[in-house]
Write a structure and sequence with these properties.
Elements (H helix, E strand, L loop, with lengths): L15 H14 L4 H15 L13
Length: about 60
């Protein structure tokens, strides 16, 4: 069985819930592309969660 999110977004790790919340807000309230949303969500998370650093690498498949 596979669980698939309704909105197409997924977040993992200790800062996952924060990154997911940020990404959901950015999807609704911006015209950013997927990569930019991921980077901005991680930046927001890193500013809030002490276990998330701001050294962000994005690999596009």
């Amino acid at each position: 069985d596979l669980i698939e999110p309704d909105d197409g977004l997924i977040a993992l790790g200790s800062g996952g819930p924060l990154a997911l919340a940020a990404a959901r807000a950015l999807i609704v309230h911006s015209s950013l592309d997927a990569r930019s949303i991921a980077v901005e969500a991680m930046k927001i998370t890193a500013a809030i969660d002490i276990y998330t650093n701001d050294n962000i690498s994005v690999e596009v498949l």
